[in-house]
Amino acid sequence: MSPDRHDRPSRDTADLVDAPFEAAIHALVHADHGDPFSVLGPHDGPDGTWQVRGLFPDARTVEVVDAGTGETLAEARRVHPHGFWLAAIDGEQRPYRLRIDFGTGPMEFEDAYRFGPWLGDLDRHLFAEGTHLRLWERLGAHPTEIDGVAGTAFAVWAPNARRVSVVGDFCNWDGRRLPMRLHHGIGIWEIFVPRAGRGDLYKFEIKGPDGTMQPLKADPMAFSAEPPPRTASVVHGTPPWTWADGDWLERRPGTSDLRAPMAIYEVHLGSWKRGPDNRYLTYRELADELIPYVAGMGFTHIEMLPVTEYPFDGSWGYQPVGLFAPTSRFGTPEDFRHFVEAAHRAGIGVLLDWVPGHFPADPHGLGLFDGTHLYEHADPRQGFHQDWNTLIYNYGRREVQNFLLANALFWLDRYHLDGLRVDAVASMLYLDYSRKAGEWVPNRFGGRENLDAIELLRRTNELAYGEHPGAITVAEESTAWPAVSRPTYLGGLGFGYKWNMGWMHDTLNYMSKDPVHRRWHHHNLTFGLIYAFSENFVLPLSHDEVVHGKGSLLNKMPGDRWRKFANLRAYFAFMWTHPGKKLLFMGGEFAQEREWSHDRGLDWFLLSLPDHEGVQRLIRDLNHLYRELPALHRLDCDPAGFEWLEANDSETSVLAFLRKDDEGRMTATVCNFTPLPRHGYRLGVPAEGWWAERLNTDAERYGGSNVGNGGGVRTEEVPAHGRPYSLSLTLPPLGTVVLEFQAGTA
């Protein structure tokens, strides 16, 4: 359709505007031009002149002035009623500025359309290949200086868009003002905006391929965002930081090795503790309070529920829209960096719960980003997650895989994080995950395995371990997929560790039974040792077990109040001495009674009660014992480090096992999961000498009845359990004792 008479250049400028140029102006003023740099900015004119062209809908006057002297080079004329201006200037092109009066007096501006491309040839090449592993250095919003002019370079991938503009505080959110340059072939749009700087709000205004205007989109690569429920991105960039954690990074490989003790405190930063009026604590306040607490409790690592920016508090961070931005709920990127550095100074590793499996369909997010199914599959059988009403990444698109790979590396590089716990791996591995027949699309071989997701996970792990010594990856994977934590060169997925979900479910099921019935479920506790060394396992008691009506850990335990606490203490000692690294969700360490809620802090007042304080003291002692005794951690992931002493005494609900290291050190764990104390319990052991009682969950200091073995027990030459020596033990009611072999010690 040709423009009507109100949409044409004025008659007195007809000499400057031919028909093709008129069509280009029409497209620009209607925010529908895909190549604005071919029209706007400085261009050669006829007869040795040059022209400066600009789109300033609200301007009253526009002048082109010499950048050095401020001398007026030409007054521009409005050549279109919707605000297209053109100035013709004699002579050779020179540096210039624009002097514009919007009705409040003249102001000088740099012209965004006089600057060259932000992306270089190598950036374009790597992006086209899907191998730009430092993507965050070029895409997003980067405050920078070009030709001595300060501003911000914006770049975004939207290959199917008809037109993309950056909008924000710096252009009154007018999508006509700053349409972007398209790099054909790779689909990246970019522009350098003078005067735009750190703290400015912005989004992208995108017109889809069919001409439909999309909702304003947040920047997928934004490094900061407005506090929810507001949704704009915030110009921040990646300024250089001086870190003071070099000592930690140097010794970090020794803290994450399979032979190292690893006790992880899982925390939701927004509900660990609240400030006055139930406000969130900031990253800096958490650095001052959470970090010393975790260190004092003897944990080795903090694992944060996702802090990548997310719109809905109730998702706990598991529906992120800003994968490159630490949530602004708790402060700035610098504040988050401070939190990580504080942890490292305290000798605490920091793990991020990373969510590459899905993303929400919020209109400002990745869904239909450029008017097409860009990040997600178009077919809902592949691109829609039925359980969570979210969208699933198209892992087979090289740009999407590049986006996720770069994001994983970003957190390890930019924020010095010590590892990634990868959420919902099973949902990524299986095309038929939580789907009925006919609701999923087989892979090219007709199978149910998501080959593209497998490739992404393997490559993520290879890069994480290859580029960041001492960093780890942990899979939340709930099926029997083989070799999750085995190297990719052996056919594995390449994770360092895998959550042992089967152990968690079996043992919690056992502990929920009344002791009178436990004899019938005894092997819920022993079954896990059949497969305990098939992977490098983390034993998780995670946030998922204390929400949605499941009750707290304490309230899963049967019996009266005394028995609940005794059961929980005995269970914790069983867990801490069982093969595998440890993970406990916040609140469990002091027997939180209420279910966890993201809307409030933990019930810290409970620590004024002796029973709760006793559980906290027990966890502290277990952490220190686990770290102190090599037998309890050195061979956590090696079958040589474990031996049953008694696995079949279901009648009395007693079990006992050895933990060993590779230098002959040993501990014995003996659990009595009935409320009856057992005196003179005969337990065969492999070595003669003194077995010191290092921990007893029934000790008075933990809130127990103080039934135990004093300082320890000496072996007797009485054969038992097929061994030449044995111990005559007193087993406390609903208690676990941990004995350390000390040959020859009285």
Automatic annotation (TrEMBL):
<comment type="subunit">
    <text>Monomer.</text>
</comment>
<dbReference type="InterPro" id="IPR044143">
    <property type="entry name" value="GlgB_N_E_set_prok"/>
</dbReference>
<keyword id="KW-0119">Carbohydrate metabolism</keyword>
<feature type="active site" description="Nucleophile">
    <location>
        <position position="423"/>
    </location>
</feature>
<dbReference type="Pfam" id="PF02922">
    <property type="entry name" value="CBM_48"/>
</dbReference>
<dbReference type="GO" id="GO:0003844">
    <property type="term" value="F:1,4-alpha-glucan branching enzyme activity"/>
</dbReference>
<comment type="pathway">
    <text>Glycan biosynthesis; glycogen biosynthesis.</text>
</comment>
<dbReference type="InterPro" id="IPR013783">
    <property type="entry name" value="Ig-like_fold"/>
</dbReference>
<dbReference type="InterPro" id="IPR006048">
    <property type="entry name" value="A-amylase/branching_C"/>
</dbReference>
<dbReference type="InterPro" id="IPR006047">
    <property type="entry name" value="GH13_cat_dom"/>
</dbReference>
<protein>
    <recommendedName>
        <fullName>1,4-alpha-glucan branching enzyme GlgB</fullName>
        <ecNumber>2.4.1.18</ecNumber>
    </recommendedName>
</protein>
<keyword id="KW-0808">Transferase</keyword>
<dbReference type="Pfam" id="PF02806">
    <property type="entry name" value="Alpha-amylase_C"/>
</dbReference>
<keyword id="KW-0320">Glycogen biosynthesis</keyword>
<dbReference type="InterPro" id="IPR037439">
    <property type="entry name" value="Branching_enzy"/>
</dbReference>
<dbReference type="InterPro" id="IPR006407">
    <property type="entry name" value="GlgB"/>
</dbReference>
<feature type="domain" description="Glycosyl hydrolase family 13 catalytic">
    <location>
        <begin position="266"/>
        <end position="633"/>
    </location>
</feature>
<dbReference type="InterPro" id="IPR013780">
    <property type="entry name" value="Glyco_hydro_b"/>
</dbReference>
<keyword id="KW-0321">Glycogen metabolism</keyword>
<feature type="active site" description="Proton donor">
    <location>
        <position position="476"/>
    </location>
</feature>
<keyword id="KW-0328">Glycosyltransferase</keyword>
<comment type="similarity">
    <text>Belongs to the glycosyl hydrolase 13 family. GlgB subfamily.</text>
</comment>
<dbReference type="Pfam" id="PF00128">
    <property type="entry name" value="Alpha-amylase"/>
</dbReference>
<dbReference type="InterPro" id="IPR054169">
    <property type="entry name" value="GlgB_N"/>
</dbReference>
<dbReference type="InterPro" id="IPR017853">
    <property type="entry name" value="GH"/>
</dbReference>
<dbReference type="InterPro" id="IPR014756">
    <property type="entry name" value="Ig_E-set"/>
</dbReference>
<dbReference type="InterPro" id="IPR004193">
    <property type="entry name" value="Glyco_hydro_13_N"/>
</dbReference>
<comment type="function">
    <text>Catalyzes the formation of the alpha-1,6-glucosidic linkages in glycogen by scission of a 1,4-alpha-linked oligosaccharide from growing alpha-1,4-glucan chains and the subsequent attachment of the oligosaccharide to the alpha-1,6 position.</text>
</comment>
<dbReference type="Pfam" id="PF22019">
    <property type="entry name" value="GlgB_N"/>
</dbReference>
